[in-house]
Amino acid sequence: MDRPPDATIDVPIDEDTITATLHQALRTGSGRPDLDELGALEEKLRGHIALLLPRARESARRLWHGSIEAHRLTARLDGIERQACQGLGDGPLAAHVQVHQLARDCQWLLARHSAGARP
User: Which is nearest to 81 in space by CA: 54, 58, 107, 113?
Assistant: First the structure.
């Protein structure tokens, strides 16, 4: 599926802020999770994913369209996009799982971005 160019592709990525959010999100879970905290973390993670995803899609477009690598990368990016649209779900456990999944997806996107940004 071809997507139009994203205006966020020129917005600078603050890796330190994203990393801090990831640490906070991955630390949640000890004790009873607070739904307000999980909601705030989900919102931050979705924002980070929204900044990182267009860059990852751009790198996917540079791959040979028929390659297995291009197909796998596109499928993974589509999955991340769908997950980011899921919402917190019903109850604290669903919210906790959603935040952790978004954090892992964001972590993967950040690692791809960081690897591509090195000279």
Answer: 54
For 1-119, strand residue ranges (E) read: none
- Residue 99, classed as helix, strand or coil, is helix
Give the global pTM: 0.86
- What is the tens place of the pLDDT at every residue in 19-53? 999 999 999 866 677 899 999 999 999 999 999 99
Q: What is the 3-state secondary structure (H, E, C) of 15-84?
A: HHHHHHHHHHHHHCCCCCCCHHHHHHHHHHHHHHHHHHHHHHHHHHHCCCCCCHHHHHHHHHHHHHHHHH
Identify whether the C-beta of residue 102 lies closer than 8 Å to the C-beta of residue 84. yes
- For the segment 61-89, what is each residue's pLDDT rounded down to a tens digit? 998 888 999 999 999 999 999 999 999 99
